[in-house]
Design brief:
Layout lengths: L17 E2 L4 H11 L3 E6 L2 E7 H8 L8 H11 L2 H4 L13 H9 L5 E6 L2 E7 H10 L2
Parallel strand pairs: 1-2
Antiparallel strand pairs: 2-3, 4-5
Organism: Asprobacillus argus
Protein name: CBS domain-containing protein
Keywords: CBS domain
Length: about 140
Amino acid sequence: MKKRTPVSAIMTKNLVTINHTDDLTNAESLFKEHSIRHIPVVSGQEIIGMLSYTDLLRVSYADTVDEGENDVETVVFNMFTVEQVMAKNLVKVSPETTIKEVAEILSKNEFHALPVVQNYELVGIVTTTDLMNFLLDQF
């Protein structure tokens, strides 16, 4: 196994991002359209948060009724903003951070994605799925 491989070798570079002023309905559309579980939240070029599909499900959990499910979800989504729901105090890594270091960070925390930042600019995202795929490629 390559011990010093940088995270840039496995990170997602073609990013789907959301602006901090966008609404949660738009976020839900992005999650479903791109089959992703994490979306970096940006203000201009700067990453200011991370929104996970789990975060979105937590606020939409209010739809415990079967009838009018979409109506309830829309109302709940309109009650919150992306900024209110996103994770704010992000741990960030650089493209040179090793995959081993990323694995250590993710294994000790309760989140499953890290933004990859270079010179204050978001250049990628690495997830636990990226790590698992890297591990599987080693066999």
